[in-house]
Amino acid sequence: MAELIDVKDLSDDLARHILRTATGKARELDTRMNVAVVGADGHLKAFFRMAGAWTGSIDIAIRKAKTARYFNMPTGEIGKLSQPGGPLYQIEHSNDGLITFPGGLPLTTAGGDIVGAIGVSGDLVENDHEVALAGAQYLLKALAGE
């Protein structure tokens, strides 16, 4: 018997709040970022380019978000697996190009449902990751009613 899958996704409001939280963290770090949020389907849901953020990082932020959603893992982890000799070697050449360095994270519920992903670009990858993490943590707190 065929069944439909019930897909959980981010609301527009949650996507905007994730962006605001992430850009707030970028301001704390005194950096300018591009922040992208994709929905459960991997397509762009919300995007914000902070004043002065590199235009070359726009596509990187979007691709980080898509990469994290396509493979349901942080982009930095995909990067580790895609090194020469690794099980995902050269995966960055698939799907019209992926980004395999830190700054992209799946967005999950406390129950583990993946509802989208966030991608951040514009500074050192450590800062990109920290800003993405702030957005991901906002989602968990919001869903918990905090």
Explain what you see.
The chain is of the alpha+beta class and 146 residues long. It has a single domain, classed as 2-Layer Sandwich (Beta-Lactamase). Helix content is 40%, strand content 17%. It has helices spanning 12-28, 56-71, 75-81, 125-143; strands at residues 34-39, 44-49, 104-108, 114-121. It has a 4-stranded antiparallel β-sheet with strand order 2-1-4-3. Helix 1 (12-28) packs across helix 4. The mean pLDDT is 93.
Which H/E pattern describes the elements? HEEHHEEH
Beta strand count: 4
- The rounded Rg comes to 15 Å
CATH level 3 topology? Beta-Lactamase
In total, the number of domains comes to 1
How do the strands and helices of this protein lay out in sequence?
Elements: H1 12-28, E1 34-39, E2 44-49, H2 56-71, H3 75-81, E3 104-108, E4 114-121, H4 125-143
Antiparallel strand pairs: 1-2, 1-4, 3-4
Helix pairs in contact: 1-4
Describe the structure concisely for a colleague.
With 146 residues, the protein is α+β, with helices and mostly antiparallel strands. It is built from four helices and four strands; from the N terminus they run H-E-E-H-H-E-E-H.
Keywords:
single chain; 146 residues; alpha+beta; Beta-Lactamase; four-stranded antiparallel beta sheet; 4 helices; 40% helix; 17% strand; globular
